[in-house]
Q: What sequence folds into this?
């Protein structure tokens, strides 16, 4: 078997729970599945599964490898779908869940509608962690780490969080020179809708501890409100680049402690695994991968 066959067998063994069940799905004997896993482990140089007579489970190295293998399989499936449906005109209704985003994201959605008028697009905006399968979405755009193994994923781009304040606020209260200086400022904080916790700021390896020392002068669960507050000179905010950069460019906001708060956040598309996906889904994901990175800056 070639390398991709080994990867697909590895993923199926994890999903099925044992060699025999994986073999039934793949049309192979349990022995052939086991030999494929052994060859794969020899090639990568680590054990991927703990095995005993009754059960099989991923090693820590296997769990890490599984994340990459799922991404490979998702990319391959999407590429095959794109090729096989190249002549198929994308039509029909597409339900999308997206985080509450800035106008730069919205422009990408509108560009998609202009480019593909035969697709009826329904976008549901929420910052909570939706259950794509239970709630009937075709695709979800999600920020941050991904955990749902039932889904295929594709990274669309990335952005950074920026500490910002208005020139007026800084003239009145001074400009922080160090992370410790932030403790003496009015901080405008975001409450995470999914966890109900106030998000920490990107203050280095000890960001949770350092963020706990910051004031909660104003707390909101919508970045549009935080943006209005920081533009009004009420304090310092930590905003995604796609909310802040337009105002940084005009001079309405200034970036603070950029060298001390370097960070990156991924944006990904997620969609159900194991289904025959229509052309409109592959078209949407390809379009977002090409055009959304511009909206993230």
A:
């Amino acid at each position: 078997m070639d390398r991709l066959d080994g990867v697909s067998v590895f993923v199926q063994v994890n999903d099925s729970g044992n060699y025999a069940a994986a073999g039934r799905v793949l049309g192979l004997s349990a022995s052939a599945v086991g030999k494929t896993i052994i060859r794969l482990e020899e090639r990568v140089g680590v054990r991927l599964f703990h095995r005993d007579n009754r059960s099989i489970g991923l090693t820590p190295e296997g769990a890490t490898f599984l994340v990459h293998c799922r991404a490979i399989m998702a990319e391959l499936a999407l590429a095959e779908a794109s090729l096989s449906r190249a002549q198929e005109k994308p039509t029909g209704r597409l339900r999308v869940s997206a985080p509450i985003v800035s106008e730069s994201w919205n422009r990408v959605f509108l560009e998609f509608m202009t480019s593909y008028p035969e697709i009826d697009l329904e976008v549901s905006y929420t910052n909570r962690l939706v259950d794509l399968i239970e709630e009937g979405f075709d695709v979800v755009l999600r920020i941050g780490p991904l955990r749902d193994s039932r889904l295929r994923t594709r990274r669309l781009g990335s952005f950074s969080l920026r500490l910002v304040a208005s020139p007026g606020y800084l003239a009145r209260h001074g400009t922080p020179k160090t992370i410790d200086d932030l403790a003496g400022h009015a901080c405008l904080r975001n409450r995470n809708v999914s966890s109900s916790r106030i998000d920490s700021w990107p203050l280095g390896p000890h960001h949770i501890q350092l963020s706990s020392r910051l004031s909660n002068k104003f707390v909101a669960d919508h970045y549009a409100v935080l943006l209005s507050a920081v533009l009004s000179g009420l304090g310092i905010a930590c905003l995604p680049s796609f909310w802040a950069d337009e105002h940084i460019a005009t001079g309405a906001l200034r970036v603070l402690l950029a060298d001390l708060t370097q960070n990156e956040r991924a944006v990904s598309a997620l969609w159900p695994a194991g289904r025959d996906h229509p052309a409109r889904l592959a078209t949407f994901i390809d379009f977002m991968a090409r055009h959304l990175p511009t909206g993230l800056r």
Residues 7 and 69 are 6 Å apart (CA to CA). The first strand starts at residue 49 and ends at 51. Residues 60-84 form the longest helix (25 residues).
